[in-house]
Amino acid sequence: MKYLYLVWCGLKRKKLRTLLTLFSIVVAFFLFGLLGAIRQALAGGVSMAGADRLVARHKVSIIQMLPISYEPRIAALPGVTAVVAQTWFGGVYQDPKNFFPSIPVEPAEFLAMFPDFVLPAAQRQAWLATRTGAIVGRTTAERFGWKLGDRIPLRSPIWRHEDGSDAWEFDLVGIYDGAKKGTDTSQFFFRYDYFDEGRAPDRRGEVSWFTLRVNNPALADQLAATVDREFANSPYETKTEPEGAFAQGFAQQVGDVGAIMTGILSAVFFTILLVVGNTIAQGVRERTAELGVLKALGVSNGRVLGLVLGESCLLAALGGGAGLGGAWLVTLGGSPVPSLLPIFYLPTADLLAGLALIAALGLLTGLLPALQAGRLGVAEALRHHT
Amino acid sequence: MSTPNGPLIEIQDVEKIYRRGAEEIHVLSGLNLTVARGEFLALMGPSGSGKSTLLNLLGGLDRPDRGTVTVEGKRIDQLSDRQLAAWRARHVGLVFQFYNLLPAMTAERNVELPLLLTDLSRRERRQHVATALAIVGLAHRTRHYPGQLSGGEQQRVGIARAIVTDPTLLLCDEPTGDLDRKSGDEILGLLQALNREQGKTILMVTHDPHASARASRTVHLDKGQLSADPPA
User: Fold this and answer.
1) What is the Cα–Cα distance from B158 to B156, expressed in whole angstroms?
2) Contact between chains at A9 and B109 (C-beta distance less than 8 A)
């Protein structure tokens, strides 16, 4: 600890330069944290996907519909233990910017299929008993200040009534929470029977996809092929895949966010690496005589090496810690755009990766200047000044 | 081993060569020197005569290419880098022409630097620092940074740093070279007091005959060879 002050003095030797470098590290790690939260938000569906769940959709595209009549046929296939039909409703509340996923489902089957959504028993009963009933995740309920018993009007640009109206009304009977931290609690679910009777007759019986549970996840691939074979050569051929792959495909409609993020972060870190490395190296060059004095006073080569490495590590720790901490605090406040990024938090894995990057940044940027300082001859170093 | 009354420093047949490409520069050639304990020796000579090189060899900052350097009975030319560093910390106090204080540290922190290598507690270190600064007459400037001190005061801090560990010998490289006459005289007086009152062995490199007059003995170095000061 008694050398910490010496390390600190090395950094405050050029205050402005140190501050600017520190600021660049703070920004880099703040971005790293935020991008980690965004990536988590976009891949949220993937991370909460069940290993024993498959999704069957139209072979061509998710926007192509499948007939509800497929449901009993899928359920009858050996290895399938449950099936739930879901449809993209695309509802908006009052204003187009108030968007959140809204999906008609069969309540009992749906809740059994997705135990991640935790609904109190009384609210579950109310949903089963109310045809116009809907449940919503706590994030969206809090976002709009909804309470149980509220009547929720939604407009759907996709699904219209027989008279051409796009306005739908639901009675809020339940507010669910997530079983896990990453559970998406922004979604709005309502009853399929109410939805099917309310939409234009020529569109009745259409659904977007089926989620099915398999009794043996190890045989999920084979079962997916069985499902697709069952409907091969029909007007509605299916593509069945694990739920995680389905969610990933959904998220990647806006591009491969993971790859984009990795690219951005790599560029940012490479730049920061050069900036910090240059700052430390320049600091060592400017303080050659001072390092010579330390050696002349009896500080060993190894300790001088440690002091310089300590400077780069302290700089990285202060900047990285502040940046990562800042990102963590910001994400604690929830999503700034709940309609786009409903799940928004800094995952522990990204936090740990950030800490590892801080250590790597400190060591990598300090290593060469530290070795250079360690090897410096005392008499030669002193001649830099005298 | 040297006895308390024997020579503190013995240099025998020392040779130091600097290489610049293919060129070899013989800075010291077959040099012999003995310094008694408690002596105040001035080392004079023209620029490039090898004064600072000799001082570096005595302080364990550099090694000779040939010959032996013995301090207090110990062959320091045979020590490893690590051993030399530890030896310097224990036995040598260095005073530089340009003070070489760390600008981001206060006077007391600068003086404390050599003590960081000891096992002393923070409190004990503070006590030693206060004593050293009091000896050089700077007890009232402890919290000042080098940039806030005059040249003379900075050199006093440098001397306090050199004596804070109570070293065996003080090596001073042109300690008054960057000071005006008045400040230089004060520094020389201080060194003289350290020699006379505290028995410190001092080797001082200087160009200045006025400074060398304060020493108990003067030797001249020219072209790598020593010659004694002619009697006044």
Assistant:
1) 5
2) yes
pLDDT along chain A (386 residues), means of 10: 84 88 90 83 60 88 91 93 93 88 94 92 95 94 94 93 93 93 87 94 93 86 91 92 73 66 79 82 83 91 91 93 93 71 80 93 89 85 68
pLDDT at residue B5 above 80?
no
Nearest residue to B209 (alpha-carbon basis) of B225, B190, B188: B188
Residues pairing with B19 in the sheet? B24
Q: Answer whether residue B138 is part of any domain.
A: yes
Which residues of chain A have a CB within 8 Å of the CB of B92? 298
By DSSP bridging, strand A53-58 and strand A209-214 are antiparallel
Residues A310 and A324: their CA atoms lie apart, in Å, by 20
Nearest by CB to B97, which of A298, A302, A386? Answer: A386
Structure tokens at A249: 């495909």
Least Cα distance to B97 among A281, A203, A293, A116 occurs for A293
The reported pLDDT for the residue numbered A248 is 64
Question: Which ranges constitute the DSSP H helices of B78-227?
Answer: 81-91, 107-112, 122-135, 151-163, 181-198, 209-212
> Which residue ranges make up each domain of chain A?
4-44+255-383, 48-254
CATH number of the domain that B53 lies in? 3.40.50.300
Within-domain flag for B197: yes
Q: How many CB atoms lie within 10 A of CB B140?
A: 9
Look at residue B43 and tell me if it is in a domain.
yes
User: Could you list the residue range(s) of the whole structural domain that residue B169 is in?
Assistant: 39-62+81-228
Residue A81: the pLDDT is: 92
| Region B152-175 average pLDDT | 93
Residues of chain B contacting A6 with CB distance shorter than 8 Å? 113, 116
Q: Do A382 and B98 touch (CB under 8 A)?
A: no
Q: Taking CB atoms and an 8 Å cutoff, what residues of chain B touch A294?
A: 113
Q: Can you list the pairs that A285-288 forms with residues at least 24 positions away whose Cβ atoms lie under 8 Å?
A: A286/A13, A286/A14, A287/A10, A287/A13, A288/A376, A288/A381, A288/A384, A288/A385
Total number of domains constituting chain B:
1
pLDDT range class, residue B231, cuts 50, 70, 90: very low
Is the separation of the CB atoms in A168 and A198 below 8 Å? yes
Contact A84, A113 (CB under 8 A): yes
Residue B193 to residues B31, B38, B167, B187, B202: CA-CA distances in angstroms?
Answer: 30, 12, 15, 10, 11
| CB-closest option in B56, B81, B109 to A301 | B81
pLDDT at B171 over 70: yes
Q: Which of A6-10, B42-46, B89-93 comes out lowest in average pLDDT? A: A6-10
Q: How confident is the model at residue B216 (pLDDT cuts 50, 70, 90)?
A: very high
Whether residue B158 lies inside any domain: the answer is yes
Buried-state track A132-157, b at ≥16 Cβ within 10 A, e below 16? bbbbbbebbbebeebeeeeebebbbe
Predicted pLDDT of residue B232:
46
SS3 B30: strand
